[in-house]
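Side project, low priority. Logging it here so it doesn't get lost.
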Amino acid sequence: MAMKISIYVGGAAGKDIKTASEVVQAADSMGVDCVWSAEAWAQDAITTLAYLAAKTERIHLGTGIMQISARAPAMTAMTALSLNEISGGRFRLGLGVSGPQVVEGLHGAPYAKPLTRLRETVEICRMAFAGEKLQYDGDVHVLPRPGGEGKALRLDVNPADIPIYLATLGPRALEYTGAAADGWLGTSFSPDHAEAHFDYMRKGADKAGRNLADMEISTQVAMSIGEDVEGMVATAKAGVAFQMGAMGSAKTNFYNEAFQRAGYKDEALEIQRLWKAGERDAAVANVPDAMVTEFQVLGTPDMARARFRKYRDVGVNCLNVRLDDKASAADRIATLEQIMDVASSVD
């Protein structure tokens, strides 16, 4: 079976909706599985998808991810049901806890009990999707609010079976994903070190009487296909250094911790130290080739096919590709066509 391919739009660099729309419409015609909308501190995850829902016919539309601390669970459910309705049932709800720098710095919410908050959000959303009254007694969320005049309400929207994907990286969160999610949105994942994520997900699935094969296992992958392998590796190191040093605080960086679990503890911590010290060039220079080649798909078409097989053989169903937001629509479409050709030829 050919590996499914999805793409990302939005985020801090994705401000050109017309270009993004052109690329996504082309992706729709190519058979790309899903378009995931990023959400950090620029575009929100929903507005772009609502626009793209009107511009496409078949491609699924997913939030990759909606930050749970930015919205009340009931509003998350209302938004999901609304977008599912206007897209003709093509919506996928991707949720994540984000990190303390965004949650506390941007939204002014405490980064407390993130996994509990995630679990309760999932449970409340599923109640809403099933058409139930929203009456819930959790550690973080209590509906209706005690001591007030509120009452349990049922959303006045058609119930729908909306799959919930979780973007998780920490061990306990991965275990919960294996136990409860319809799909996983992975990052910092290598098929050469799949146990760094899957051991925890499998533990959660086993406890819940599930099998990981019952879930869609998808992961974000940077891809470069061409002949200049050495140049691709060198170019990619800056992105790895940014992940290790900038994607979180010195105390909390889930991406860095995932690379540590994959066997790169000393390297990940040293890159982070250099980055936090302002020595950005040194941080990039300290990224070993393997921290690129084992976590990405790059090289000749034959090398890319071999990597696709590795992902497939460990149980990954879909690779999520972030195209270059600075490239023209024509260049992005050409890159995507090349990726789809390689993916479709994997035996």
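Brief comment: The chain has two domains: 4-226+300-344, 229-298.
Revisit when time allows.
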